[in-house]
Recover the amino acids of this structure.
């Protein structure tokens, strides 16, 4: 009989994790992949019987892939800590896993989301149409490298379930802001690792995104909760882009400081004999810096001035080495290979 594994990726989710794990107690394996929580997340997960693997944050897609690789089951349900499996979905999952969908070649299932905000279920706005590919057959799904959170490719057919995953993004406004700070930092790092850079046009589109969610998608029909959901969703995208800009600035400053430490040395004339010694002290990203040295920077003095003893000695050494090379070339030329 096919087995179902559930994976949950976490970072400081001590408040949300207990209800999430309890909602999947029927699963054959529950795996929590934690990326460095400083609260009681790991202890709570182990206390509730879940396996725990700690893995530094590599990005959303890479963490999903890591979790699936370490799951113990034929099918894998991917969850976040603020998500719950509804009783209806539990029954649907059992049927999907038991049947295996082998006759139809189905290797993945789209699952709708039911978003609850402050004990109110949102029935309008973009939340009404939210669905994600979360039930996957192991070995048949892969996340694109440096891809987005749910950027997964399935080899085979994809079907849909009707029962929802209950999404409870936050319990209070304070919880909302704390969660916003953590998740936008992860999102900014993820965007940077995917090669995306700050674009003011993307950051400034958020007012239009709010208008689309709240007005055109009828989010206002969900009352204050609908307004807050539309506002916070748009704010999330804006803050993530702003943090991407800040991340680019920090990286640029660090690179500038690292390079600046070697500028005085590179500006000081050095002889060809010293170039190798200087290169050994350069950071890895500075090894390709070209260091042009004027031919008369050290070996020859300015006109009308006597050459220094050090310059004369360097010239003698260079001349001796040159003669040695010429002599070797001449000798090698007199003997056929």
């Amino acid at each position: 009989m096919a087995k179902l594994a559930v994976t949950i990726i976490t970072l400081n989710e001590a408040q949300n994790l207990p209800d999430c794990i309890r909602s999947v107690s029927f699963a054959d394996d529950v795996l929590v992949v934690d990326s460095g929580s400083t609260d009681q997340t790991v202890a709570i997960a182990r206390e509730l019987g879940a396996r725990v693997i700690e893995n530094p944050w590599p990005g959303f897609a890479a963490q999903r892939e890591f979790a699936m690789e370490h799951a113990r089951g034929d099918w894998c349900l991917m969850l976040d800590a603020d998500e719950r499996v509804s009783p209806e979905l539990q029954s649907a999952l059992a049927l999907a896993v038991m049947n295996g969908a082998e006759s139809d070649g189905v290797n993945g299932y789209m699952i709708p989301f039911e978003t609850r905000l402050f004990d109110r279920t949102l029935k309008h706005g973009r939340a009404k149409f939210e669905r994600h590919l979360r039930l996957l057959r192991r070995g048949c799904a892969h996340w694109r490298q440096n891809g987005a959170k749910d950027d997964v490719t399935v080899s085979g057919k994809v079907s849909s379930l009707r029962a929802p995953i209950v999404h409870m993004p936050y319990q209070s406004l304070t919880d909302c802001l704390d969660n916003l700070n953590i998740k936008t930092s992860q999102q900014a790092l993820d965007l940077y690792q995917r090669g995306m850079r700050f674009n003011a046009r993307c950051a400034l589109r958020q007012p239009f995104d709010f208008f689309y969610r709240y007005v055109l998608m009828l989010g206002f029909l969900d009352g204050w909760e609908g307004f807050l959901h539309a506002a916070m969703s748009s704010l999330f995208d804006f803050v993530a882009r702003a943090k991407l800009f800040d991340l680019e600035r920090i990286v640029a400053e660090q690179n500038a400081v690292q390079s600046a430490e070697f500028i005085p040395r590179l500006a000081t004339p050095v002889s060809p004999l010293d170039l190798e010694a200087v290169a050994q002290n350069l950071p890895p990203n500075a090894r390709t810096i070209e260091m042009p040295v004027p031919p008369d920077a050290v070996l020859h003095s300015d006109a009308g001035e006597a050459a220094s003893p050090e310059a004369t000695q360097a010239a003698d050494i260079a001349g001796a080495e040159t003669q040695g090379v010429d002599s070797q070339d001449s000798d090698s030329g007199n003997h056929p290979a």
About this structure: Confidence is low (pLDDT under 50) at residues 265-312, 320-337. The longest helix spans residues 223-260.
